[in-house]
Amino acid sequence: MRFDEGYSGKVFIMSRPTHEEADAIIYGMPMDWTVSFRPGSRFGPNRIREASLGLEEYSPYMDKHLEEVNYFDAGDIPLPFGNPQRSLDMIQDYVEKILEQNKFPLGLGGEHLVTWPIIQAVYKKYSDLAMIHIDAHADLREEYEGEALSHSTPVRKICELIGPENVFSFGIRSGMRAEFQYAVNSGMYMAKYDVVEPLREVLPRLAGRPVYVTIDIDVLDPAYAPGTGTAEAGGITSKELLEAIQKIAESDLNVVGADLVEVAPVYDPTEKTPIAASKFVREMLLGWVK
């Protein structure tokens, strides 16, 4: 069932007609209530869906076709505008329901704080959970200007929940000095600037474990993804992110859920950001949904 029953608008390309037959559920989290610079990521999920209609259903990277994966686009969770805690509670409740049905949750953001309630839900099911975090920003603050609920804080919260030794960050090139010091002192893994090579080294350590993957579109250089709220120069290319998704798919990881966040289409009149994001979602579906 979609959140908006009777909806006849855009869904992600080749979405199955019913929730029941799906192995994976795509759902949107249109929230940007806590952003520190530019809002607009609440419009990301629907724009990614619209951009997906220009995709080929076949992936030469995975040598697979979308008809080989059963997934259902449930639409956007109707989050209450301006109410962060209630929004997070609704996200956690929904993801718990997906997991109870043994389906793969694939979330579209929305700001990065939305990953925090997802991990709370996934951790309830997988007590030995690890997380792969691909992002430009460390997101390790305890608060931002007095607010503990901020898109600058989700990874710190997740470290405190599942243990910093189970958090693996890649592509990081922005944050406070205290955040980088926390990464060193806590025992979490942080690869600065790059993604593919450090990921290749880490994946064998996670073999067989349940892993959640969160991707912030701003890990890409703004030349490839200008449509995001907090763009950071010096990022990776679209090709490198595609390779990272493929490396995860080829590994022995048990990927149990994923999200792609921080697409803010208003800042990208060329639409290259949602177009790239939709392709990444296609690869995530083909590579990670078993």
Protein architecture, described:
- It is a single chain.
- The protein is globular and about 50 Å long.
- It has a single domain (24-288), classed as 3-Layer(aba) Sandwich (Arginase, Chain A), CATH 3.40.800.10.
- It is 32% helix and 18% strand.
- It is α/β, with parallel strands linked by helices and 290 residues long.
- α2 runs parallel beside α3 (115-125) and α3 (115-125) packs parallel to α4 (154-162).
- Its cofactor is Mn(2+).
Task: Average the pLDDT over all residues and give the rounded result.
Answer: 95
In the sheet with the most strands, the strands line up as 4-1-5-10-9-6-7-8
Count every helix, treating DSSP H or I runs of 4 or more residues as helices.
8
Whole-Å distance between the termini? 22 Å
